[in-house]
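Re: that chain you flagged

S.,

Sorry for the slow reply, it's been a week of failed gels. I finally had a moment to sit down with the sequence you sent. For the record, here it is as I used it:
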Amino acid sequence: MMGIDVGPRYYLRNLPRYYWGRRKAGLPACDWKAIVNPFGELRRKMHQRLPLPEVLDEALDLLRSAGVRLSLPRVRVEGLVGAWWSTRAVPGDMIECGAYRGATSLLLATLCRLANVGKRMLVLDAFENQLPISRHDGMRTGSEYVFVGNAVERLLDQAARLNVPDRVGVLRGRFADTFRSIDGRQDRFSFVHIDANYYAGTSDACRFALARTLPGGVIVFDDYNGLCDLGARLAIDECLAPSGMRPIALAGSSAMLRIPA
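Prediction finished late last night. Pasting the structure tokens below so you have them in one place:
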């Protein structure tokens, strides 16, 4: 039933609303690739096959032993890890904007430990059960993500079990507030993972990341080609428009942007 419902909603309501948002933002009104988003997400295709660290399977086994559950399908895990691995020699740390329960943050921190990559992961999320949505988030309700108990405490406990407590830092709160709280810091990043789903959070994260990602670094947009994430796609295109840059498809619904020298 969901597939039957998503088709009409996507093409008759959300796609026209998305195109209206593009016109309002001064972007080219027609984005043909958005038309095929539903098919691309269902195929779970690997678009950029990047080298992977030999310790990936070992890291995944360690996560399972520590009770960490990855919700991403394997193809998107490999896409994300490959993009990160390509930045291992770039100065700067890692940041995840929209971590949910922190599984991918813990995976990358564990990979750094196993592969002797000297980077830290900064984990950002509101860790709330209800998030604000805008008119651009037509297929989101704001309540898809459920946190039970103290999510931050659980994440830090899992980091300790994975022997990466010194590699993981957590900042809790809405992005607009979190970014203001660290404005004075000199953090610079080699790898950024943005998985905010919603228009406002994605916009805030994208602007923050562009200002702080070093040349040669990579930003992965988890939602760029997502069936339910036209708001996130709009926010990314708005943010990148002044630079003329566009992300390229990575794996499944994700896309990546490498910052030029």
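What I noticed first: The chain has a mean pLDDT of 90.

Talk soon,
D.
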